[in-house]
Amino acid sequence: MSRGDTGLLQRKRLEALGLAVADLPVLRDVNDIGDARAVAALAPETRTARRVRELSEPAAVDVVLPVLDEREAIPWVLSRMPAGYRPIVVDNGSADGSGEVAARLGARVVTEARRGFGAACHAGLAAATAPVVAFMDCDATLDPADLPRVCAPVLAGEADLVLGARDAEAGAQPLRNRLANRYLARQVRRRCGADVTDLGPMRAARREALLGLGIADRRSGWPLEMVLRAGREGWRIAELPVPYRLRTGKSKVTGTIGGTLRAVKDMRAQLARFERG
After folding, report:
1. Among residues 168, 195, 251, 267, which is most buried (max CB within 10 A)?
2. Which residues lie across from 260 on neighbouring strands?
3. By the 8 A CB rule, do 61 and 130 touch?
4. Residue 186 belongs to what domain range?
5. Residue 171's CATH number
6. C-alpha Rg value of the chain to the nearest Å
7. Minimal CA–CA distance to 202: which of 63, 95, 46?
8. Per-residue pLDDT tens for 104-113?
9. Is residue 44 part of a domain?
């Protein structure tokens, strides 16, 4: 099958048997990495193309994007992903085809059946292979174009954890959410000395170090537990402002009474656990 005249010889045999032979478009054979890249360029939305990119273009940063019914926002978010930043979309039980949309656009998709923001983040972290991992919401409130600025101190070894403090446009962050974040930031400063003003959803740290923290929460307390544990371990925690926009769709946490109550309960549990040591 590897000879250059295989097709010609087979055609002659078929014609000798009296069969009519029709020509189809010529396809690209894959024998080496150059062929693989050419095939990936011809069909960029296939699993083969995605795997070729992962193998031939190793990412400096894996970006974990927890998703629950975000199909309207996913195309914009993925289109804004910087070069060298590989999106890992974690589908946490979407009913709107979010996972299929993300896969069609070339993202790696991980399915996490256990509901919860922390469960989705943990699944994404477990799937990541890049030395640095970033996390951000996939609802178009945050722009992936801001990731390099947030990740730069980690990549340069100047910080262990960087948080993107939300600079919210009008109406993007309800007053109750801003007040809750200020309260939580004060509690973090009091308990572990980390000088933060917001527990922003865009953040970055080294993968191995994050795994070593042993974050246990699998619900809404996951972001707070990360910062508390990092502070207790003496991590260098930095904060940078990032624009925060009106989201696409309704929040499944702060956009509902039930979600808000669960988030408050999870955050209180983390503060109490940390207080007990």
Report:
1. 267
2. none
3. yes
4. 59-276
5. 3.90.550.10
6. 23
7. 63
8. 998 999 999 9
9. no
